[in-house]
Write a structure and sequence with these properties.
The protein is an alpha/beta fold. 45% of the residues lie in helices and 14% in strands. Helix 9 crosses helix 10. Bound molecules: fe (ii) ion (FE2).
């Protein structure tokens, strides 16, 4: 399995505080059968702390640790990019990191009740510059208003959707779980990722549990598509 949204790097954002905890997250992920993780610290925090090189260095250190410990898991460079007026320019300059330096970019919509014209403009601007947005956890965001039509429209306009494993598992409440299931029923989910923030507790690695859930409810082809095939395309596609 591939996890395209994970805050396992330490001291960069609201993820783990120590590199030891990062290593525990890596170990737990390995035990769940995950063999590739995209490291996605919040861009805003990384840039404010001038920590882009630290991000790259930590990815390298985790990969070394993985080899030494025979975890059979690889970590790749990415960011969770809040969508704002600066994102497109920063991405084109290579300051905002895309998914493994490719053409796909993990984008976090603004936390607002309703999306304004800027939201749609900024997504289009990314696309006009050759980037394909993977929208992070729409099922948890008020702006989507539990509205599958809005998700479908955005997908029809070339955006992809990533929902969170914890949402499928009910960790963010019944309403989020219901909306997640609705999106899965309508086949509007491209990727499920963990959005792991810590080694234990509610925001720990739980991708395998969501995989089992999707496998049971929607069958093997769908589970493979959402947890393996599409994530692989996003990680290595150009
Ligand atoms: Fe996140």
């Amino acid at each position: 399995m591939i996890d395209l949204h994970n805050h396992l790097l330490s001291g960069l954002d609201d993820g783990p505080k120590t590199f030891s905890e990062s290593k525990i997250i890596l170990e737990k992920s390995s035990k769940q059968g995950i063999n590739r993780i995209l490291a996605t610290p919040h861009r805003k925090d990384v840039l404010e702390n001038q920590a882009s090189q630290s991000l790259i260095d930590q990815v390298e250190l985790l990969n070394q640790y993985s080899i030494q410990s025979e975890l059979n898991i690889e970590v790749y460079v990415g960011m969770e990019n809040h969508l704002d007026t600066t994102l497109c320019e920063l991405a084109m300059k290579g300051i905002a990191f895309t998914i493994n330096y490719g053409s796909y970019i993990l984008v976090e919509p603004p936390y607002t009740d309703n999306f304004d014209d800027d939201f749609y403009f900024q997504l289009k601007e990314l696309q006009a510059n050759g980037l394909i947005p993977l929208i992070a956890h729409p099922e948890r965001m008020k702006g989507f208003d539990n509205n599958p039509n809005l998700i479908e429209t955005l997908k029809n306009h070339g955006n992809l959707m990533q929902i969170t494993s914890g949402s499928v598992l009910g960790k963010f409440g019944a309403e989020v779980k219901t909306f997640s299931n609705e999106l899965l029923d309508l086949d509007l989910v491209d990727v499920i990722a963990s959005d792991t923030h810590m080694s234990t507790g509610k925001r720990e690695q739980d991708l395998i549990d969501a995989y089992e859930c999707v496998l049971f409810e929607y069958g093997k082809d769908r589970a493979e598509k959402i947890f393996k095939k599409l994530p692989e395309m996003l990680l290595f596609g150009n």
